[in-house]
């Protein structure tokens, strides 16, 4: 085939073979080039193609190659062969061109994802200490699952052994009375949020979202066509002043990312208000496992009328690639959520679910969490010390302690989004507070959980290099 990839045959047929995939066999490349010529109307409908003999001679290729290409074009309806009378191009409708307009506006998640490359970075938020992950014990759990039913398809609601372990865990750790039949295993809590939005909202419904808050929540709600109104936790003092809404999403145990908590009086007032208005309260409990001291009780545990849906995740306690989270649902909602689960994907892979159930049942999960809680508290202290000893020591830390990240406040003239981008290019994956609420900040969310002393020191050094000139202004 012509190495240049461009062929003008002496038959008046111009074929751009360079636009075809060189890894494909020759007959496929010729088929693609001919189809392109037909679709672009360079060869008119009704016209006759050169004979296979003539085209193979003109292109210097085997006649069989041309024959195969013609056969494929005919099979797909681009040519109409008339036995003995040659191959004629079919009369085809013209394909609409895509409207030319600028691309859609990026939302916050897309902005972050397009800025932040995959792979770990220094001071990265929401990243567990993967260097401390108990690989051998996890492999043992996987092995156990592999020979213990993990190769079979399972219950769309989630593996019953895992649902049992989660219910037990929530009872002992979070003071929650949960039946395994109320637990729905999801692909991370992100999918849980999306399922809630798709099942409980109709287009135009109003949703109340805590500010600041995780942008994935807003995306899930907007994808379901909901309108979003945002509130600060302080506004729950006058809960009656909030607009009428279908559901509310909040992080009562630890605001994301600032870390403050919702006190008991506001929790109780909120529950009463939700009962009165028949509002669903979604409790996103994303990292209470690493609270400083004992974790606050879940809002769910105060609820007497099953208006709270609790969302939990293993992304932070184990590893983000696991993609296992869960919802604890009011009993009345279980059947419809299980039904949609069956329709959407038939349930998650059994193997990791079974392995996780085994990991929890044999005590490895709680052992790992106790170790990580101690480690993260030490790493948090180290980060605070490094910051205090650096030129950034004057920057206030706004955070309630514990967790996997802390926040620093920046002077008002700083553009935290721009700073985030600059740090990213140095391998530092902190996040701008304004990503979570444009009225909040400027400030930065600094992860400390995944960094050993060396990488943390490098992270703070890079942070100082970028921030110091801005602090002098
Ligand atoms: C507050 C909060 N909620 C929910 C999620 C979603 O977590 P996942 O889907 O990994 O379980 C995240 C992820 O970072 C988060 O920060």
Write structural notes for this entry.
- Strands 5-11-10-9-8-6-7 form a seven-stranded mixed sheet, sandwiched between helices. Strands 12-14-13 form a three-stranded antiparallel sheet.
- Helices cover 39% and strands 12% of the residues.
- The longest helix is centred in the last third of the chain and has 26 residues, at 364-389.
- The termini are far apart.
- α8 (215-223) links the parallel β6 and β7.
- The protein is α/β, with parallel strands linked by helices and 473 residues long.
- It has three domains: 6-89, Orthogonal Bundle (Arc Repressor Mutant, subunit A), CATH 1.10.10.10; 155-346, Type I PLP-dependent aspartate aminotransferase-like (Major domain) (Aspartate Aminotransferase, domain 2); 369-471, Aspartate Aminotransferase, domain 1 (Alpha-Beta Complex), CATH 3.90.1150.10.
- The site of pyridoxal-5'-phosphate has 14 residues, from α7.
- Pyridoxal-5'-phosphate binds next to α7.
